[in-house]
Amino acid sequence: MDHFSYVIGIEYDEQLVIDSSTESTRQRAIDEGLNRNALFQEQLLDWLAERGLEDGISGIEEPLCFPILSMQCSPEVAEAIKTFPGVTFVNKDGL
Q1: How many helices (H) and strands (E) are present in the chain, helices listed first?
Q2: For residue 68, what pLDDT is reported?
Q3: Which run of H or E residues covers position 68?
Q4: What are phi and psi of 49, to 5 degrees?
Q5: CATH label, 4-92, candidates 3.30.1490, 3.30.70, 1.20.1250, 2.40.50
């Protein structure tokens, strides 16, 4: 089955606010975003594995501090991800 690159949008109950007045507050916000996205990615991968869809994933990028993930997967996996709680969109990348 073909795999494509997808961008996955994440919705959080509370948005991060980055105070750019000091480097320490910026870094704290960046670290918090990275941690939130890493946890979301882990939960998503576990959820996909529970459904037997892990073979449909060929790659996943390291989490960013922004509320998005990037994954290379089959269209079937991309469709399943649309139903995962907290996902706002799943778009094919590189059109």
Answers
A1: 2, 4
A2: 94
A3: strand 68-73
A4: -65, -40
A5: 3.30.70
Best CA proximity match to 1, nearest among 59, 68, 75: 75
| Tens digits of residue pLDDT in 63-87 | 988 899 999 999 999 999 999 999 9
Give strand pairing partners of 91: 7
Cα–Cα dist 83/67, whole Å: 17
Helices (H), 11-83: 23-50, 75-81
Give the model's pLDDT for residue 27.
Answer: 83
The distance in angstroms from the start CA to the end CA of the chain is 19
Q: Provide the residue type at 83 as one letter.
A: T
Q: Is the pTM of this model over 0.90?
A: no
Nearest to 71, CA basis, from 11, 14, 31, 94? 94
- What pLDDT, on a 0 to 100 scale, did the predictor assign at position 16? 57
